[in-house]
Each structure stands twice: as C-alpha cells, then as structure tokens.
Design goal:
The chain is mostly helical. The protein has one domain. It is 81% helix and 0% strand. Helix 5 packs across helix 6, helix 6 crosses helix 7 and helix 6 runs antiparallel to helix 8.
Length: 182
Amino acid sequence: MVSECKMLANRRNALRSTGPRSEAGKEKVGLNAFQHGIYAERMLLPGESQEELNFFRERMWEYLRPAGPVEELLAERLVAAAWRLRRLLRIETEMLLEDMEKAVKRWQWQSQKGLGMEEEAPTLGGAVARNMREGNTYGKLRRYEYALERSMYGALRELRWEQGEVKKGVKAGRQQGRNIRA
C-alpha cells in the first residue's frame, strides 16, 4: 500500500505535468491505449468487424476524453461493456428470429399432419413464451444485459468522478501556486 505522504507527492508531481500541448499531440496521446490492439482481439468475435470496433472505440474516446492511465482504463472498460451490449442486441434479435422460425416450422408440420393444433399461425410472443418454458434463455440474456449495464454505468461513474477529481486537483494546485507566490 502506498503511504499518504507518497500519494500526496505523486499528486503534486502530476499537477506539474503538462502533457501534450497541441491538439494533434493530445489526440495522438489520447489514442495510445488502444493502438496496440490487445483489447480489440479479445473483444471481437467471428463475424464482427475490426473497423467497426475501431470506429466505435474512437467515437467513445472522443466523447469520454480520458486523461491518464486510470481514466484510460475506465474508458476501456466502458467501451468493452458498451460493445458487448451492442452484441447482446444482435444476439437477442437472432434468437427471436430463430425461435420464431422453429415455431413456424412446428406449426406447419403439425398442420400438415392434422395433429389437432391451434388454427392461428404462431406469434413472436408465443415463441418467446415457449422458449421461457423450455429453458428461459431470454431470462439468462436479461441477466447478462443487466450485468453489462451495471459494469458500463459503474465505469462511467468512476470515470466522471476521476475527471472531476483531476479538475479539482488542478484547480487546487493552481490556487496553491498563487498563494505561495503571493
């Protein structure tokens, strides 16, 4: 564990760091954390586009504007959770289409065999209800979605807190500097 004295010294040193000054330099440094591709390889599944992930990540980083390693880590967590949530929507759509297709095939087969079934064609609601009775994969999907949302909003909350603390620290450091010089 880092001592209180060491932590304060680190914070004072961080306040003196100017980082890149030009907009081009700031943009280049802001993208450093994901140019190596380590996270991208783990985040992509077959059928997903590296270009789409890169575009998504760049847009998120432009919006979040992380500064420093802690903020970059939180921004990366947020990007990963948001990407997986997007994937989840695609999975849900594919599951619904598949369940509906199975229900239609079952209905067609039963109607061809004259097996005393309902007169109406299956509905999406009926297909979902059948799935929930047989294994409830939609309930599992909802739990996964909820966990991803919690992770995403938690990372966003932490990132906003860090960004607020950095601004407070910079402001306090500037005020301290003025007091010392006065």
